[in-house]
Structure formats: C-alpha cells, structure tokens
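Something for you to look into today, if you have time. Just paste the record in under my message, thanks.
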Amino acid sequence: MRLGSPRVGGKGFYVEDPKDLRAALDEAMAVDGPALVNVPLNPRAGRKPQQFGWLTT
C-alpha cells in the first residue's frame, strides 16, 4: 500500500483494494508534510458523460 515520495519530503500511498483506502487516507492526513494517495481506477468502469470532450481524452 505504500509508495515513497522522499524527494519532496512527503509520503505516498498506493491503494488497489478499496478496503485499504480508509487506512491510507488516515495515514496520509497524519503526515507532517505533503502526502499523495494514488488510487488506480478501472478504465472500463462506467463514466459520467462529460460536458467537454477534452475531459475524456
């Protein structure tokens, strides 16, 4: 679940399982500095239609 980001002095988290999301968010909020939570999305999941075409490219 952890992804390091030492170059900017923060911490990063990579979450693939939804059950791990809450823990990653809680830990990211506790970081004294920048934090990143990376959650990959399913490219085949249904998407809300966008008003502007460039938002979906």
Notes: The radius of gyration is 15 Å.
